[in-house]
Design brief:
Length: 389
C-alpha cells in the first residue's frame, strides 16, 4: 500500500495516512511501515515501537531526526502514530510486532558509523578492514576522516569498489550468523541495510556530482528505495504486507508523468512492475490552505500560505466540483480525467513566486495512481519544535 502526499508539510495528508495505516495494521494484518526517512533514525524508532531500546516516549524516539527538514518526521502526527504503534505491539509476540523502517539514502555518515560499530563487536578483523575501505568516504564528507587508517587512494570508481566489497562481506557475515541463530534478527538486518545505504549513497553522490554522465541521481535514489523495500519484505517474509509513506513524486507511477519522459523512474513504477495489482498507489492533493515548508534548503520551516491551484490542474478540477474532501477511485476510468493536466508537488521548499515552474508537472492521473484523496483546504503540519508563522 503506497500512501503519498503532495507536500512534506500538510497535516491532513499525514493524519489521514496514519489513520489508514492504523486500520491496515489492526484489521488487515500489515507488518511494516516504511517511510521516506533515513535508516539509522528509523531504526531507533523501530526499537521503540517494538518496546526495546532506551527511549521511553515517542518524542525521545523521534529526536534522532536532526537532518533538515526536521518537521517531516518530528511532528505531532508521527508522534501520536509511533505511540499508538508501541501500544499495539506491546500486546503482540516478537515475531508479529509491526516494524518501522526508513528507505532513503541520505545517512551516509551515520550508516558508516553504525556498520563499524556493529562489526567491532561481531567481527573485529572485518571491522578493521572496513575502516580502511571506508577511508575514501572522507572525499565526500570530511567529517568521516578516520586518522586511524591510511588515507584513501584512487578515485570515485575505487571507492565504489571498496564500499561494495564491504557490503558483500557484511552479507556473508549476516547470512552465517543467521544460520547459527536459526532465525533472522533485527540487529543483523540493520547492519546489512546500513552497509547497503553506504554502497548506494556513494553511487548517488558520484552521479549527482558528475553532470556529464547522463545518469540520473534521482534514479539511483529511487532504485535504492525500491531495493530497500524488497530487502524489508525478504526480511519479514514472503507474505509480508507493507505500507509506504512518501511524496507523490516517489509513489505515483513515473511512466504517467513528464519525469518519466525524461528517463526518470520511481518507487511507484518499480513496485507496480514487480507486484502488479498486489500494489495499490494512492495520491493526495489539495487546492489551497497552509503548509509547513522552507523558502530555501536548510532554512527554518515556517507556516506558509499555499496559493490556489492553477487553471488546467487536477487540483483546480477537483476544487471546481464543490466537494470539500473526497476519495476518487481512478481504476474505474472517470471520464474527463484521461487527458494530461498539471499536478502540484511541494517538497520541503515552497516557492510561490515561481509556482508554475517550481511546483507543477504534467501527468495523466488515472495512470499515475489507483486512487486519489483530495482535501480542498488544508493546514500546515505541526512540528514538535514550534515553527514561526
Amino acid at each position: 500500500m503506497l500512501l503519498g502526499e503532495a507536500s512534506h508539510g500538510t497535516y491532513e495528508f499525514y493524519r489521514t495516512r496514519a489513520a489508514i495505516t492504523q486500520r491496515l495494521i489492526s484489521e488487515h494484518g500489515f507488518d511494516a511501515v516504511v517511510i521516506e526517512g533515513d535508516w539509522p533514525e528509523t531504526q531507533r524508532v523501530n526499537r521503540f515501537v517494538r518496546t526495546q531500546g532506551a527511549d521511553r516516549t515517542p518524542e525521545q524516539a523521534l529526536s534522532g531526526f536532526q537532518r533538515f527538514p526536521t518537521w517531516m518526521w518530528r511532528n505531532t502526527v508521527v508522534r501520536d502514530f509511533v505511540g499508538w504503534l508501541r501500544t499495539t505491539n506491546a500486546t503482540r509476540k516478537n515475531d508479529s510486532k509491526v516494524g518501522f523502517y526508513g528507505m532513503d539514502l541520505y545517512s551516509l555518515a551515520g550508516s558508516r558509523q553504525e556498520v563499524i560499530r556493529a562489526l567491532t563487536t561481531l567481527d573485529p578483523a572485518l571491522a578493521a578492514r572496513t575502516r580502511t575501505r571506508y577511508a575514501c568516504l572522507a572525499a565526500i564528507d570530511p567529517s568521516m576522516q578516520d586518522t586511524s587508517v591510511p588515507a584513501a587512494t584512487g578515485g570515485p570508481e575505487a571507492c565504489e569498489r571498496n564500499v561494495t566489497a564491504v557490503f558483500d562481506d557484511v552479507r556473508r557475515l549476516t547470512a552465517e550468523r543467521r544460520r547459527q541463530a536459526g532465525a533472522a534478527t533485527e540487529a543483523l538486518f540493520g547492519l546489512e541495510q546500513n552497509a547497503r545505504v553506504v554502497k548506494n549513497a556513494v553511487a548517488y553522490e558520484r552521479t549527482a556530482m558528475d553532470m556529464f554522465s547522463g545518469a540520473s541521481s534521482w534514479n539511483v535514489r529511487d532504485q535504492h528505495m525500491f531495493e530497500t523495500v524488497q530487502a524489508i519484505r525478504s526480511h519479514l517474509g514472503a507474505d509480508a504486507r507493507i505500507v509506504i509513506w512518501a511524496h507523490n513524486s516517489h509513489l505515483g507511477d513515473a511512466r504517467a508523468t513528464e519525469m518519466g519522459r525524461r528517463g526518470e523512474l520511481n518507487v511507484g513504477q518499480l513496485i507496480r512492475q514487480r507486484y502488479g495489482p498486489a500494489a495499490l498507489l494512492v495520491g493526495f492533493t489539495t487546492h489551497t490552505g497552509t503548509v509547513m515548508a522552507a523558502t530555501e534548503w536548510g532554512a527554518p520551516g515556517r507556516v506558509m500560505q499555499v496559493r490556489p491551484s492553477l487553471e488546467g490542474s487536477y487540483e483546480r478540477l477537483f476544487h471546481d466540483t464543490g466537494i470539500p474532501n473526497f476519495l476518487l477511485d481512478l481504476s474505474r476510468g472517470p471520464q474527463g480525467l484521461q487527458q494530461e493536466r498539471l499536478e502540484r508537488a511541494i517538497g520541503v521548499q515552497y516557492l510561490p513566486a515561481s509556482e508554475r515552474s517550481s511546483h507543477y508537472f504534467q501527468t495523466n492521473l488515472p495512470r499515475q495512481f489507483d486512487m486519489v484523496l483530495h482535501f480542498d483546504t488544508t493546514r500546515a503540519l505541526q512540528p514538535l519544535t514550534p515553527a514561526p508563522r
